[in-house]
Amino acid sequence: MDISAQTFFYHLPRVLDDLASCCFVSIDFEFSGIAKGLGPSAKSRSTLQERYEEVKNSADQYQILQVGLTICHEDPETATYTLKPYNLYLSPIIDRKLDLDRNCSFQSSAVEFLLENKFSMEDLYKNGVTYLSRDEESRIMARVMQRNERTTARSSLDVGDHEYESLAFLKDVRRLVDEWLALGKAREDYLNIPPPRPITGPAPSNHPKSMPTDLNRFQKRLVHQLIEVEYPSLVTVSRPGFIQIIDYDEQREKAVRDQRVKWVQERIWKQTGFRWIAEALAGGDLTNLEPFCFINLMSSSKENPQSSLQDFSRGVKQRLQKNRPVLVGHNLFTDLIYFCRCFFGPLPDRVEDFQAMAHEMFPVLMDTKYMATHNCGSINPRSSLQEINDSLAKQPTPAISRSIAILSFLTNVDQVYTLNLPNTTRGQSITKLALIVCSLLRFSLNFLPSSETGERRGFRQQFQKHLNPVKSRRSPRSRL
């Protein structure tokens, strides 16, 4: 299913609900650029740290442009798997009102590859789902809070001695403010810069001839700076075409600051976009996701009636925290680095620190490229998705002993796949291989010896938590 910016928040609650009960999730990305190696002077085989630095530097420069997400649910009673695939573009554009720019880089070879495979640059920018990383959110909020602190007021004007027109404009504004303040209690509650002109007749005597009828953005900025630097007992309010100057009131200004912070926070939550899904995958915090988002999901839920929408949304978020599905990918090392950099922020320098961070977010990881090439020799290993797909297409089920009825669900893999997945080599290879490997893990973990080590026992228990044994209702004839 294709998800666009227009339909994202419609599908989001259902995706989150599926993630809260699935057994594994496969991911696949398209990038604006990838690592190209350490250079001609590099050794023939790089260390893990060197490879990590190479991909990390690439992830700092390039972005994820497209996401493929397949959510897998297991039905132990019917011995079937249901796959729900999603595909979406990720727009690199950030709401300009958040006052944060994001640098976007494209590698020419990557663009060539994308266009050859019918990647739509128009859909990327017009229909792409927005996102905002944790780091970007923190920077936006830090900037807002800094602006709200009156103790950080500027001490000088950004005007040079040679900017004669700006100096003349400031002189006129200064005169108008001084005349207004000199009126004392007889003055009005506010002063407009420039003073309003009558529709007919001559301009008032206090209106400087050099002052325009409407202020542009630069002139407004000069007025803001002048009042902030030279008149601490006053504040400015921007209006269409003019600036209004009023007395400073601490209580009112605090309410204005609080409202500004709330407004920015709401825009941040809207811009967060796909990161809500990233947080759900990583066991992150979804507290700020509005309960209203789940209203349609709640109305169609078959569960027991909830006391309130807040309780229902809280329940979904709690289930997301408890359910940590297996994360599956092809060449997952690269995908994981880009994923964490794109949605969370700058990565640690040491690969060991990244490893600890990644496993805290994703307790169980599965790389189908590694599994397809492990112990296959160094000459022409079958690592491409097309080759893996060709190999898997010849075996509808794993070649497992008939006595292992635990694997009988795989006789329906092709049928389930046909009903739920688009006919793409990439999605078919990753998902089908993951199903086969999951079944093998079930078998091996259920038949470990009683004398297993503590480390191995912990490994078994962790997998069994995610992969419950299949209880097939099929007749013996249908079993492998």
Task: Please describe the topology of this protein.
Elements: E1 2-3, H1 8-19, E2 24-31, H2 48-61, E3 64-75, E4 80-89, H3 108-116, H4 121-126, H5 134-148, H6 164-182, E5 190-193, H7 217-230, E6 234-239, E7 242-247, H8 250-272, H9 275-281, H10 295-299, H11 309-322, E8 326-329, H12 332-343, H13 351-361, E9 365-367, H14 368-373, H15 385-393, H16 413-420, H17 425-446, H18 454-466
Parallel strand pairs: 1-4, 2-8, 8-9
Antiparallel strand pairs: 2-3, 3-4, 5-7, 6-7
Description of the structure:
- The protein has 480 residues and is α/β, with parallel strands linked by helices.
- The chain has 2 domains: 284 residues, Ribonuclease H-like superfamily/Ribonuclease H (Nucleotidyltransferase, domain 5), CATH 3.30.420; 97 residues, no CATH class.
- It is 46% helix and 11% strand.
- A hairpin with a 2-residue loop joins strand 6 and strand 7.
- It starts with a strand and ends in a 14-residue tail after the last helix.
- It holds the Pfam family CAF1.
- One of its GO terms (biological process) is siRNA 3'-end processing.
